[in-house]
Design a protein that fits this description.
mainly beta; 0% helix; 45% strand
């Protein structure tokens, strides 16, 4: 999924576990921050992220979680060029974000 400063809402369709997140930012010369919220909907700049993943400029990253991260309300995410909850600036070349999700913790 291409991730910008508009939220990708409830991508799991409900509660889920995050096993891994891959962020493809190799073609972009600025670091990006992918912000993942335990929420069925998220508002950029308002909804607090429970997880913020930095992907450096011109690189790809895969983050793997053992044990998986539990999201009870849903999984929503967006990506900005600024860290912190107030960061809302969109990447000029949005990265691709891939989440590996499960409905169970094992």
């Amino acid at each position: 999924t291409v991730s910008t400063n508009s939220s990708n809402n409830n991508v799991a369709g409900g509660a889920a576990y995050i096993l891994s997140v891959t962020i493809l930012n190799a073609g972009y010369g600025t670091p990006v921050y992918t912000k993942i919220c335990d929420a069925s909907t998220a508002t950029v700049g308002t909804t607090a992220a429970s997880l913020v993943l930095l992907t450096p400029a011109s690189s790809d990253r895969t983050y793997t979680f053992h044990p998986p991260l539990s999201y009870a309300s849903g999984v929503s995410f967006f990506t900005t060029t600024t860290a912190g909850q107030a960061g809302t600036s969109a990447p000029s070349t949005p990265p691709t974000v891939r989440l590996l999700l499960s409905s169970t913790s094992s």
